[in-house]
Amino acid sequence: MATPNPGIGNGFTEGELQFASFWVRHEILIRRLLYGILFGVNALLWGAALWGLLDAYAISYPRESRITAEIAENQFLAQQLQSNRPEGVSTSPVNTFQGTDGRLDMLVKIRNPNARWWAEFTYRFNIAGELTPARSGFVLPGHERYLGEFGYKPDRAGSRSAVLTVDNIRWHRLQPEQVGGDFPEWLTRRNAFEIGDIAFQSDLQIAGKNVGRTSFSVRNATAFGYWSVGLYVILERGSTPVAANYITLERVSPGEVRNINIDWFEQLPGVTNTVVQPVVNYLDTSAYLPTTQFER
């Protein structure tokens, strides 16, 4: 009967012996599997790194560059639109003149600072909360003109101060083809009314009353006829307006001369100067008198 050798397998469990036996029989396969896993992980890491570089420099970069360029272009366009947008009109303080029978005359200057835009609008005057009727107005590019309301009788007596309100502003861009590419020269050939023989008489007697009279002549020194020409007439003492009025001349032909008399029934301080401002919207084609109306 054989006696077991106590030195073989001494100190190892059966499981450990089985594992050692498995390792001896499959060591090469296990090593290959581990190397394969390590290689696969390494390949994934390198693939991710290479994909990141490819995406950054070959795929996303051109797209992001285009986006950046589009943003810059949009910002430039926005700046251009902002710079091409017309500035708002400005106005002077309103001059209010006391007329006869409790009536008021109001006069104000409006200025358009834009060389390439002209404006149409409606305006009225606010007299202590009371609004005058709405009127239509316009102002040409780079120009200053008068606006007014004359002979208005407020409901509440004693009101003297007024504020101008401008609404419904409609801006129109000046079209080069409309003005031959040179608006100042184009306008000079149309806005050429000659005002002459200006005089103011302060001692005229009408029905036993002392009345002032302004007289002057208007000559249409242009080659154009106009359906209607407005005239603002402002009396000044020094440089301060003391009275104002507005009249309209109808069907004014080229070269025609009109002699004008305006009587002032209110008491006026010493008048030293008379300003006459013709007003025509030369950019409105309907303002012009057809040649058939004045050619002979």
Compact summary:
By secondary structure, this protein is α+β, with helices and mostly antiparallel strands. It is built from two helices and 15 strands.
Write the layout of secondary structure elements.
Blueprint: H1 14-84, E1 90-91, E2 95-98, E3 104-111, E4 117-127, E5 130-131, E6 135-139, E7 144-152, E8 163-173, H2 183-188, E9 193-206, E10 209-220, E11 225-237, E12 240-252, E13 257-264, E14 273-279, E15 288-289
Antiparallel strand pairs: 1-3, 2-3, 3-7, 4-5, 4-6, 4-8, 9-10, 10-13, 11-12, 11-14, 11-15
- Count of DSSP helices? 2
Q: What is the β-strand count? A: 15
- CATH top-level class of the largest domain: Mainly Beta
Summarize the biggest pleated sheet. 4 strands, antiparallel
| H and E string | HEEEEEEEEHEEEEEEE
Strand content: 35-45%
Structural class: alpha+beta
Shape assignment: elongated
Measured as a percent range, the helix fraction is 25-40%
Low-confidence stretches: none
CATH topology-level name of the largest domain:
Immunoglobulin-like
Structure description:
- With 296 residues, the chain is of the alpha+beta class.
- The chain folds into two domains: 86-188, Immunoglobulin-like; 192-296, Immunoglobulin-like.
- Helix content is 26%, strand content 41%.
- It has helices spanning 14-84, 183-188; strands at 90-91, 95-98, 104-111, 117-127, 130-131, 135-139, 144-152, 163-173, 193-206, 209-220, 225-237, 240-252, 257-264, 273-279, 288-289.
- Strands 1, 2, 3 and 7 form a four-stranded antiparallel β-sheet that branches. Strands 4, 5, 6 and 8 form a four-stranded antiparallel β-sheet that branches. Strands 11, 12, 14 and 15 form a four-stranded antiparallel β-sheet that branches.
- A hairpin with a 2-residue loop joins strand 9 and strand 10.
- The protein is elongated, with a radius of gyration of 45 Å.
- The mean pLDDT is 86.
